[in-house]
Design goal:
This protein is α+β, with helices and mostly antiparallel strands. It is built from two helices and nine strands; from the N terminus they run αβββββββββα. It is elongated and about 95 Å long.
Length: about 200
């Protein structure tokens, strides 16, 4: 007895071409989404304060009244990125501030190398929710910081906490990480570096 031959369904070439086009469209879409993910994440962090992002732009001076019934402890942490030969620290480890009150804290930087360098400080805040209420009216983190070989500098940071900061936030930590930006600095920034007096 002869076995019946299996039936083979032939797929038209047009169907194959349509599947290939769909797959290519999906691959391009996935690549585009991956490319846009970082800017979308940055926007999300800026809006929500998630991941400790602070508004890295100059705020207007506070015109709101000071809430003297509350005090928030603001702590300062500093570090330099791995391999960056600078000293970097806050003059004080923490300050107590009333919401709405303007405070100034100085940070000290010291270029420990024999070369002129340019650095940039990147801030973050913990808890992340507090980043929405921290307003910096002046900050060294807004710009790159050129510093001559062996030189030291004092960098002020002026800030206030929005009086609407939630009652459950009693302490916030403002951290700065200093990064070496010398390789990315423009020639005019490097030319602006003043040599320390002998």
């Amino acid at each position: 007895m002869q076995k019946p031959e299996p039936t083979v369904t032939k797929v038209p070439r047009a169907d194959n071409a349509r599947v290939v086009r769909k797959l290519l469209f999906i691959v391009v879409g996935m690549f585009g989404f991956g490319f846009a993910l970082v800017p979308l994440y940055d926007v999300f962090c800026d809006i929500t304060g998630f991941n400790g992002r602070t508004k890295n732009e100059q705020a207007m001076a506070s015109t709101r009244s000071v809430d003297t019934s509350r005090t928030v402890n603001v702590q300062f942490l500093t570090r330099v990125n791995k391999g960056m030969p600078w000293g970097f620290e806050a003059e004080v480890k923490s300050v107590r501030v009333h919401p709405g009150e303007t405070k100034v804290v100085n940070f000290l930087a010291h270029n420990l190398t024999g070369n002129n360098m340019v650095a940039q400080a990147i801030p973050s805040v913990a808890p992340g929710e507090a980043g929405l209420y921290l307003n910096k009216t002046e900050c060294f983190c807004f710009n790159q910081q050129p510093l001559a070989a062996g030189a030291e500098t004092v960098m002020p940071m002026q800030f206030y906490l929005d009086p609407d900061i939630p009652d459950h936030i009693h302490t916030l930590t403002l951290s700065y990480t200093m990064y070496d930006m010398t390789a990315h600095a423009t020639p005019d920034v490097l030319a602006s570096i003043e040599q320390p007096a002998d």
